[in-house]
Amino acid sequence: MDADRSAARMELAPVSPATTRLGWIGVGVMGRSMAGRLLDAGFGLTVFSRRRESAAELLARGAVWAGSPRAVATASDVVFAMVGHPADVRAVVLGPEGALAGLAPGGILVDHTTSAPDLAEAIAAAATDRGIRALDAPVSGGDKGAREGTLTVMVGGDAAAREALAACWRATAGTVVACGGPGAGQRTKLANQIAIASGMIGMCEALLYAHRAGLDLETTLRALAPGAAGSWSLTNLAPRILRGDFAPGFMVEHLVKDLRIALDECRRMGIDLPGLALAESLYGGILAQGRGRMGTQALVLALAQQSRLAWPTAPPPQPA
Hints:
Layout: H1 3-9, E1 21-25, H2 29-40, E2 44-48, H3 56-60, E3 64-65, H4 69-74, E4 78-81, H5 86-94, H6 99-102, E5 108-111, H7 117-129, E6 133-136, E7 139-140, H8 142-148, E8 151-157, H9 159-164, H10 166-172, E9 173-180, H11 184-212, H12 217-224, H13 232-236, H14 238-243, H15 252-269, H16 274-288, H17 299-306
Parallel strand pairs: 1-2, 1-4, 2-3, 4-5, 5-6, 8-9
Antiparallel strand pairs: 6-8, 7-8
Helix pairs in contact: 2-8, 11-15, 11-16, 11-17, 15-16
C-alpha cells in the first residue's frame, strides 16, 4: 500500500477553529448561509464562486477569496462544495483546476450538492487514490434551515471523516445521518426529493381547490397543518404562496435537475415511479415557462394556469 493510501486510512483529529483551515466552493442561496455559519463558529474560510460579487458578504466578514477551486483547496484542510449541477461538481472537484488537484493528502472533501450517485462514487475513488477522504453530503431544509443551522445532512462515505467534522456539522446542521458508503448520501437525498415533489403537488392542489371553493386560505392552513395533511412544505411554503412570495428557498431548476437524476436512477434500476414522472413533467413545464429561478412553491401558479384560474397572489407577468 502506497503512502497516499496509508494516509487516507490514518485516524483523523477532530476539526476545530484553532487548527483547521476550511474552504468553500459555491455561494448561492444555500451555500452563502452555510459558509456564513462556519465563519460565525470561528473558522477561517477561503472561498470561491463563479462570480466574486456573490461572495461579497462573506469577504466583508473575514473570508479570503481564492481564484479557483484548486486555489481554495491548496489553502485548506477541509473543502466544502455546494454548486448547481453534476457537471459543475465534476468541474470544481475533478477538473484540472478542481479541488482534488489542490487538496493535500489527509484532507477532506465534502460535496453538499445534490448530484448523481455514480459521480459521488467516482469522486470518492479519485480522492482515495490521492490520500483524501471524500463525503457526499447533500442537505435538506431549504434556505430557512441553512440560515438557522438546522439542516439535515445525508452523508455517504468515510465514517472517520464524518465524525471528524462534528464541529462543522454543529454550525450548519440539526441532524446528520450516516447513510452508508460513497453515493449513499446522494441516493438518500433522491428519495427525499421524490417524497417532496409528490407532496408539493398535493399541497398546491389542496390550496387551489380551497381557493376555487371560496374558502379563506389562512383559515384552511390553520385547519390542515396540525392534522394528517401537515408537512414541512405546508408549514413553510404554503404561507409564502399566500403572501405571493415566490422567491427561491430552493429553485425550480434545481428540483428539476434532482428529479431527472432520480428518473435516470429509476431507469437504471428498472423501477417505475409514476408520481415522480408526473412531478418532473409539471416542474419541467414551469422551467419551460421561464420560471426556473422561482421557488418550488411556484407549482401553484402552473396548476392554476392549467385550470384557467388566476391565482390571487400571482406575480405580475414578465415583460416580453
